[in-house]
Structure formats: structure tokens, C-alpha cells
Amino acid sequence: MEIRVKSLKFDADQKLLDFVEKKVSKLEKFFDRLDTVDVTLTLLPEPENKNVKLQTRIPGEELMIERNAKSFEEAITDAVDLMKEKIVRAKERKFDK
Predict the structure, then answer these.
(1) Cβ-count burial of 14 within 10 angstroms (0-12 exposed, 13-18 middle, 19+ buried)?
(2) Which CATH architecture has domain 2-95?
(3) Which of 1, 90, 95, 96 qualifies as a FRET site for 11, CA 20 to 30 Å off?
């Protein structure tokens, strides 16, 4: 599985990139045919200004989760947890019929 990280309006440090890699790589446990996961990190002007968007594809479906939080780590953790649930539900709908 390939993880592509884009940071908009700032340069992400290696510590944050390693955290993203560690958390997002766990998604592969839930669906072994994930090719790529696109992670977009953005700074916003609001108080909860850290935005994370996760996008991936499973056969026949595009999955996307977007989360805002006070820290990127919190937003990434929330987004990955929600993406796990979304992958499991989509997999059950498509493949467990």
C-alpha cells in the first residue's frame, strides 16, 4: 500500500510524516487490496485549524474522510478510526453477500 502525503500552506516535519505513516498503514489490516491512500494536511484559519483528509479506493467505491482538530495527531487518529469503520462497512456490503 502506498501512502501519499500532501501538506498545504505549511511544510510537514518528519515527525508528523512518520506519525501519518504509522497510523494510516494500519488500514491495510482491514482491506488487503488498498492500493493508495492520499493524505492531505491543511492549516485553516479557524480555532480547530488542523484539517486532515484521507482518500482511498476500494473496487467500485471511493472513500473519503475529513476531520478538523486542534492538533494534526488528533485529526489523523480520528480520521483513521472512521476510515476503518467505513472500509469494513463497504467491504461487508460488496464482498460478504
Answers:
(1) exposed
(2) 2-Layer Sandwich (3.30)
(3) 1
The answer to whether 38 and 7 are in contact (CB under 8 A) is no
Q: What is the pLDDT of residues 30-63, one digit of tens each?
A: 888 888 999 999 998 888 899 999 999 988 889 9
Q: Where are the domains positioned within the chain?
A: 2-95
**Residue 33, phi then psi, degrees to nearest 5:** -100, 25
- Higher-confidence residue of 80 and 35: namely 80
Cell of 42: 491543511
What's the pTM value of the predicted model, to 2 decimals? Answer: 0.89
The residue to which cell 471511493 is assigned: 62
Q: Which three cell numbers stand for residue 15?
A: 515527525
